[in-house]
Amino acid sequence: MTTEKTKSDQLRSIFKTIIFAIALVFMIRAFLFSPYIVEGASMNPTLHNGERLFVNKLSYSLHDIRRGDIVIIKDEAKNKHYVKRVIGLPGEKIEMKKDQLYIDDKKVSEPYLKTNRQIANNMDMELTGDFEPVQIPKNEVFVMGDNRLYSMDSRNGLGLIDEKRIVGKSEFVFYPVKKIRKTT
C-alpha cells in the first residue's frame, strides 16, 4: 500500500509541476516576452524576412518609447503586426529634406540606413522621399522601416501610431540560430 501511495503522490506531483510550467509559460508570453516573425523586407538589412524575434512587452511599462527602438505594432483591423523603427516622438516636428531627417529643425543622423542609402544612391535615387513637416501629437509616434524604398510606414499607409498599438520592443533575433543577435 505504501508503494501505491508513493507512486500516486509522485504522479500528482509531476502533474502539478507540468500544470505550473504551462501556466508560467503562458504568463511569460502574455505579459513579458513573446515571439514574432518578421514578414517582408521593410526592415532589411537590420531584420530579414522569416527571422524570429523576442519582443519585450514589459519594456514600455518601465520607460518611455525611445527614438530608434524597433517596435511591434498591432493592426487589429487587418489582424496583422508590423515591425518598424521609431523615428519621431510625441511633441516633435519631423520632416525629411533631401534625404536628411530633421527633428525640430535639427539634422538627425540615421547610421542604420548606411547600406540602404548606398543602394539608393547607386540607383540615382533618394532613400527617403521628402515630406512636409509633421507635428506628432501626444501619445503617438512616427515610424519608418529601415528599407525605406520598400516600407509601408507612417509616411505612406500606417500613419501616426498610437502608443497603445505598440505591443513591445524587439530585443533580439533568436532564429535562425546562426544569426542570433540583439536588434537595437
Overall, the morphology is elongated
Structural class: alpha+beta
CATH homologous superfamily label: Umud Fragment, subunit A
The figure for the number of domains is 1
**Any idea what the radius of gyration is?**
22 Å
H-E order: HEEHEEEEEHEEEEE
* Strand residue content: 25-35%
Reading off the top of the CATH hierarchy, the class is best stated as Mainly Beta
Please describe the biggest sheet, giving its number of strands, its sense, and whether it closes into a barrel.
Answer: 8 strands, antiparallel
Q: What is the tally of beta strands?
A: 12
The total of helices stands at 3
CATH topology: Umud Fragment, subunit A
- Write down the overall mean pLDDT: 89
CATH architecture: Ribbon
Keywords: Cell membrane, Hydrolase, Membrane, Protease, Transmembrane, Transmembrane helix
Active site: 42, 84
Membrane topology: Single-pass type II membrane protein
Organism: Priestia megaterium (Bacillus megaterium)
